[in-house]
TrEMBL record:
Enzyme Commission number: 1.3.5.1
Family classification: Belongs to the succinate dehydrogenase/fumarate reductase iron-sulfur protein family.
Keyword Oxidoreductase: yes
Protein's recorded name: succinate dehydrogenase
Native source species: Kineococcus gynurae
Amino acid sequence: MSTTEQSPEETNGEAGSAKSAERASEVGDKAQPRDAAGTAPAGEIPSFEVTLKVRRYDPERDEDARWEEHHLTMFGTDRVLDALHKVKWETDGSLTFRRSCAHGVCGSDAMRINGRNRLACKVLLKDLDLSKPITVEPIKGLPVEKDLVVDMEPFFAAYREVMPFLIAKGAEPTRERIQSQADREVFDDTTKCILCAACTSSCPVFWNDGQYFGPAAIVNAHRFIFDSRDSGSDLRLEILNDKEGVWRCRTTFNCSEACPRGIQVTKAIAEVKQALISRAL
């Protein structure tokens, strides 16, 4: 379950503040001795200045979204998520965003970082161009509830509609359903989806058409359509054989580039299209 960072009193708030304070204290103790080249002494994590430019929106007081800049001292091991935590815990407790595992597995902290859909917990600050402000804004195509938090219900509604679960006929087996490695490999790639919505919210068709299923729903349909143990492929293909289904894809490859798990999303969509054509023939 993801956590929405909304107020300083939330879970982990005090622990986070203490951790940040401890780190700041350590920096103060260690930061003086640097050589002529400005490099950090042996054993010290290098620090650098970062300008974080966050798109803010509070429906209770804002008519329109606004940009807000924060100047931070960060470290070589920090990620964008750490910078957001620093702002929330030390500067502005009203900053709101989702996060949970912080290890690229839960998918709850998907956002647009420097114009690209990414997971905040996977982007190291040192890998970005620090000579410019780092822009952080909510993913596109879904209603913004507050700051970086969007309403995920339209996304999950499309996901539920493709029946993302095993449909098996016959009596319940007395042991596990056996599947060969070759059969598993057919759909192995699409089992990696973490439902972060990075692919769907990077799709221009989804931005402009609120009815399109979107890449993530099709990826999760693919996972079962090509599962040799499943008996519901025809049902899912019929659902996706719709003007708002797979045929709305324009093959821009935005989804494949945005996926933090490296899933070949465009290829999976093409395979579902091919399955529909083969079925028709």
